[in-house]
Design goal:
Layout lengths: L1 H13 L8 E3 L4 E6 L3 E2 L8 E4 L3 E3 L2 E4 L4 E9 L9 E10 L5 E6 L2 E4 L4 H14 L17 E2 L4 E7 L3 E3 L1
Antiparallel strand pairs: 1-13, 2-4, 2-12, 3-11, 4-7, 5-6, 7-8, 8-9, 8-10, 9-12
């Protein structure tokens, strides 16, 4: 009996008290990300800026403040011939908690595509070029689709905390 009690006491004494301190930020906690600048498939900006839309709280404590910067990943596809449009994909990657920890994010990807002009390009290029036996009109196949645009203040919903964290 004494050995079991001693084992339990030594085990509990060896555990870090830090595991019991702080407020847990659980996986799946929802937050909102707001874009601070417009994005376009036309230009190759290095990074896009986003901010946390509202305070993330647990147990009455603020764990992530509203206005905290969010690192975003932007994938661009330029518009191409035969009426194919440009596209943009924006994904939130990380933000920072009130104690300075980097918080990994998941979900919330936003996909936007410009207007297609495939029908116009093929109709003019092939229809007129072959129909009128005028090969130079085949150059109409070079008509490109529109650029994809995401306006500033666009909100990315369904963004979640990806891991478990203990915020001091």
């Amino acid at each position: 009996m004494f050995k079991k009690l001693l084992t339990v006491v030594l085990f509990l004494g060896s555990m870090s008290c830090g595991a019991w301190a702080g407020t847990p930020l659980t996986r799946g906690t929802s937050l909102q990300v707001k874009l601070t600048e417009s994005l376009s498939s036309k230009n190759e900006a290095a990074e896009a800026a986003g901010l946390v839309g509202y305070d993330v709280k647990a147990d009455g404590k603020v764990l992530i403040k509203a206005g905290t910067p969010v690192q975003l990943q932007v994938e661009r596809t330029k518009r191409r011939g035969v009426g194919r449009p440009g596209s943009l994909t924006v994904k939130p990657l990380t933000t920072t908690s009130v104690d300075g920890q980097t918080i990994l994010l998941s979900g919330g990807a936003l996909n936007v595509e410009g207007k297609k002009r495939t029908g116009k390009a093929v109709g003019l290029g092939v229809g007129l070029g072959v129909g009128l036996f005028c090969p130079p009109l085949l150059a109409c196949l070079a008509i490109k689709g529109d650029h994809a645009v995401i306006e500033s203040s666009t909100i990315l919903n369904n963004v979640f905390v990806a891991n478990e964290y203990n915020i001091e």
